Amino acid sequence: MPTTERTLYQFPVSHYCEKARWLLDAKGLPYTLQNLMPGAHRRVTKRLVATGRGSVPVLVDGDVTLGDSTEIALHLERTYPSTPLLPPPGPERDRALELEDYFDEVGVHVRRWAYGHIIQGGANLGALMFREYPAPQRWLGRLIAPLIKTALRRQYRIYAPQVEESRLKMLAGLDRLERELQNDPSRYLVGSSLTVADITAASLLSPIARPEGSPYPSRADMPPPKAMAQLAEELRARPAGQWLLRVYQQHRHRAQPQLQAA
Ligand SMILES: N[C@@H](CCC(=O)N[C@@H](CS)C(=O)NCC(=O)O)C(=O)O
């Protein structure tokens, strides 16, 4: 299938989009990326998936359109089974799907906690969110960053009590990850190879561990807020963090998809 027939609509900085890109890359499927502008994105996502929530990622794969990262995972598995990312039907597959659901939910808390600190720490949200956009979208993004900050707060409920609640849920997610791995960073969540469960946990936790190969590697010109730097440090000393770094290093082979103009 020509690349132009498989397009991922996304925000480069979204960890759910990172999960979708990783699924496509792990299956070795070529695709084109279309970066949407936060705010205006819903005009596109709602047109593509009228019944969806309007979120990204959205994958258009030939004549199939999917508006959720889990649906994308299931579609890719059904349609391109030759590089399996799920065990065959049975208890292991059920477990992989249950873990996928669980870490998808943890992703909501990672996002709230991370944005809470990014916003509170006065980081340059525009530079952070739009660095991968081509000009002039990049310039426009930096210009409208204050509006985006207000919208993010409201949409993701980024208020102190909720940020604290999310911190606890995120830490519970790290504890569960370690329990599932039996504290052994060389294991996989289900069976003895990479599955959708690993891809989901690793991509949705990547904003806090910031491994190389993720959309959030350490950058001297954009140091993270103190609380985020501290958690990343603590994480690297734990089996969960070591697992994240290993899985990224060993399995995150990023393709260089073409960028489609918006
Ligand atoms: N459950 C969805 C969550 C996706 C999601 O939350 N996407 C965010 C970006 S990280 C988004 O599109 N936010 C803007 C919106 O909802 O309109 C999935 O797995 O795809």
In a nutshell, what does this entry contain?
The protein is an alpha/beta fold.
Structure characteristics:
7% strand, alpha/beta, 5-stranded mixed beta sheet, binds glutathione, Glutathione S-transferase Yfyf (Class Pi), Chain A, domain 2, Glutaredoxin, 262 residues
Task: Give a written overview of the molecule.
This protein has 10 helices and 5 strands. It is of the alpha/beta class. A 5-stranded mixed sheet has the order 4-3-1-2-5, covered by helices on one side. Helix 4 runs antiparallel to helix 7. The two termini are 21 Å apart. It binds glutathione (GSH). Residues 11, 14, 16, 42, 53-57, 68-70, 104 line the site of glutathione (GSH).
CATH top level class name of the largest domain? Mainly Alpha
Can you write the helix and strand succession as a string?
EHEHEEHHHHHHHHE
Secondary structure: helix percent: 55-70%
CATH fold category name of the largest domain: Glutathione S-transferase Yfyf (Class Pi), Chain A, domain 2
Tell me the fraction of residues in β-strands, as a range: 5-15%
**Ligand roster:** glutathione
Q: How many H/I helical runs?
A: 10
Q: How many beta strands in the DSSP annotation?
A: 5
| Helix/strand class | alpha/beta
CATH architecture of the largest domain: Up-down Bundle
Average pLDDT, rounded to a whole number, is 94
Widest β-sheet, arrangement of strands: 4-3-1-2-5
Give a quick account of the main beta sheet: strands, pairing sense, barrel closure: 5 strands, mixed
Backbone shape: globular
End-to-end Cα distance, whole Å, is: 21 Å
Name the poorly predicted regions.
none
Q: State Rg.
A: 18 Å
> How many domains, as an integer?
2
